[in-house]
């Protein structure tokens, strides 16, 4: 059979080559391409017909038809290739819209541990980079930290959802996050031709941190408890990230911050991603999670919220509609918006290619907070 994957790549290459001439800048050609919708339709039709001819010629050469049979019509394009062309055309306005803009991706959840989903995420990031988007990745790694602590015989305990982190635990957390996980993501991106650089919040004083106390409710009283080297962002010095972006790199950031005395703090990756998105004035923050998004009633799928205003989000948290593990996700979105990011999205990282489905399709997926 003719190689369909080759055809998909070739079709994309031909569309892009026809859109973007050498005489004009990338942005100028994108604008011209979007304005002339009739040209896009005609070009797509022409390319699909040309592909149909190539497919038929290749198949006829490999499997010559008997003389008494009529050869396939050379101008009849298989529907699946027409559909693929339509997908490319649908994506074009979004390629134009996000070209040169910054998108921060918080990478975590099942997408980090499932090898197939991990591959899809890396493909999505590569596509974003090749279409002119400045991508910044902030990653978590709680399950891997827990797994490594078990290997060294260390118990893990949590208070109000926060890991109790003594000096030995924060050393292990830093090793897992800034060493193992971070370097793996960088390697996977580099293998796809994406120039990525791994850093932690300690590099170039990116994340100045301070201790975060856990809130505990006992006998109706609210108290604060010291749980060790768990931190929160005090200040972001974004210059190192901006330098990497301007040099064409994808920064991959581990959520470890540095305290006043040089001590390391493990920080919630959602909040780190939010603070970095705000500091960069990013176009979007995308939080990959293990749920479809926000529901008014999680047990009733018809109550899914696709668009959520910041005011409604705060009210839903106050009213208990948004509760449990969804609270830090939504709070991270609000932090990003308050810091200066354009929009924030909670999307299902269990869905293959969830990132580009959100960015490059009209309907998108997940919950958008603005």
| Residue share in helix | 40-55%
Mind telling me the C-alpha Rg?
24 Å
Per CATH, which architecture of the largest domain? 3-Layer(aba) Sandwich
Q: CA-to-CA gap between the ends?
A: 48 Å
Average pLDDT rating: 83
What class, by secondary structure content? alpha/beta
Our count of domains comes out at 2
Low-confidence stretches: 32-37, 66-78
Going by CATH, what is the homologous superfamily of the largest domain?
Acetylglutamate kinase-like
Q: Beta-sheet strand percentage?
A: 15-25%
Name the shape in a single word. Answer: globular
Description:
With 370 residues, this protein is α/β, with parallel strands linked by helices. It has two domains: 4-91, no CATH class; 100-369, Carbamate kinase, CATH 3.40.1160. The chain contains 13 helices and 18 strands. The chain has helices spanning 4-19, 26-35, 37-62, 79-98, 110-113, 115-130, 142-151, 167-191, 239-246, 269-280, 310-319, 326-339, 354-360, and strands spanning 102-107, 134-139, 158-159, 162-163, 196-200, 207-211, 214-218, 221-225, 230-236, 250-254, 256-258, 264-267, 284-289, 294-295, 304-305, 307-308, 343-348, 367-369. 36% of the residues are buried. Mean pLDDT is 83; it is low at 32-37 and 66-78.
């Amino acid at each position: 059979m003719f190689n369909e994957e080759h055809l998909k790549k070739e079709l994309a290459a031909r569309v892009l080559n026809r859109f973007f001439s050498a005489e004009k800048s990338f942005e100028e050609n994108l604008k011209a391409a979007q304005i002339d919708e009739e040209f896009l339709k005609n070009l797509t039709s022409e390319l699909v017909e040309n592909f149909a001819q190539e497919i038929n010629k290749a198949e006829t050469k490999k499997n010559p038809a008997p003389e008494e049979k009529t050869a396939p019509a050379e101008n009849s394009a298989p529907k699946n290739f027409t559909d693929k062309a339509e997908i490319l055309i649908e994506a074009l306005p979004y390629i134009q819209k996000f070209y040169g803009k910054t998108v921060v991706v918080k990478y975590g959840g099942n997408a980090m541990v499932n090898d197939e989903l991990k591959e899809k995420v890396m493909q999505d990031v590569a596509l974003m980079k090749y279409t002119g988007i400045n991508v910044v990745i902030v990653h978590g790694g709680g399950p891997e930290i827990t797994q490594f602590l078990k290997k060294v015989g260390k118990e893990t305990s949590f208070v109000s959802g926060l890991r109790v982190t003594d000096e030995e635990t924060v050393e292990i957390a830093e090793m897992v996050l800034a060493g193992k996980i971070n370097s793996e993501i960088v390697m996977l991106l580099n293998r796809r031709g994406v120039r990525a650089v791994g850093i932690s919040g300690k590099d170039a004083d990116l994340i100045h941190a301070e201790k975060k106390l856990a809130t505990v409710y006992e006998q109706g009283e609210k108290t604060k408890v010291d749980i060790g080297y768990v931190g929160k962002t005090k200040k972001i010095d974004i210059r190192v990230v901006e330098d990497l972006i301007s040099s064409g790199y994808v920064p991959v950031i581990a959520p470890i911050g540095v305290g006043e005395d040089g001590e390391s703090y493990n920080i919630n990756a959602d909040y780190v991603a939010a603070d970095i998105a705000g500091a960069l004035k990013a176009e979007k923050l995308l939080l990959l999670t293990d749920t479809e998004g926000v529901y008014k009633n999680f047990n009733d799928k018809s109550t899914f919220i696709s668009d959520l205003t910041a005011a409604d989000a705060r009210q839903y948290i106050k009213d208990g509609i948004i509760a449990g593990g969804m609270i830090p996700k939504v709070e991270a979105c609000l932090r990003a918006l308050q810091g200066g990011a354009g929009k924030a999205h909670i999307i299902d990282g269990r869905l293959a290619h969830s990132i580009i489905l959100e960015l490059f399709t009209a309907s998108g997926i997940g919950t958008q907070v603005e």
